[in-house]
Hints:
The structure holds 2 protein chains of 2 kinds. By secondary structure, chain A is mainly β. Chain A is built from 1 helix and 11 strands. In chain A, the strands form 2 sheets. In chain A, strands 2, 4, 5, 6, 9, 10 and 11 form a 7-stranded mixed beta sheet that branches. Chain A has a 4-stranded antiparallel beta sheet with strand order 1-3-8-7, with no helix packed on it. Chain B is about 0% helix and about 50% strand. In chain B, strand 5 and strand 6 form a beta hairpin. The interface between A and B is medium-sized, with 28 and 26 residues.
Amino acid sequence: ETGVTQSPTHLIKTRGQQVTLRCSSQSGHNTVSWYQQALGQGPQFIFQYYREEENGRGNFPPRFSGLQFPNYSSELNVNALELDDSALYLCASSPGLAGNTGELFFGEGSRLTVL
Amino acid sequence: GDSVTQMEGPVTLSEEAFLTINCTYTATGYPSLFWYVQYPGEGLQLLLKATKADDKGSNKGFEATYRKETTSFHLEKGSVQVSDSAVYFCAPVSGGSNYKLTFGKGTLLTVNP
């Protein structure tokens, strides 16, 4: 069983640029969530996709956007990068909505540094 | 919205010491409660969970009891090992927002031999 994989693992961008992060969900999982984890903080919910539709969004501006594809993989896009966007971005998949199963399966994250 | 207050770290213990990491939460309805663990260089993984009041979650020697009256879900282990060194996160999922986990800030545990 293949776990959640994310790419790239590390990347450096400059302020104002755009970035795309990718996530392959675990086999059999149809729900993908994205979290932002700033250094020394807990993960903060960005949004969740269920069967290719956004199914909830946290307190993040519209320049954070996402997609889910028919194979349930997902992308996180961030436009007009700001210094405060520097963080570890975590993708998590689950076989159902978080409220039903509770267990999220996390990837190891993409560490974004904005200079 | 939901919120979590977790014991500030870092916590440093000697091997075989007793561990308690406190967690209290606010959430709508009757949340499910989780502890996740992040080992160095790895992603988050579920440690244990409890889905209703008075339930006890347990795994790898860790335990936590869902206390509705005190809105708490404290993590305990009777005898920690060096391999338990990690960051621990408490996270409720409430019925009012059943699509997301609300994480605490995390508690860094270091266990010395």
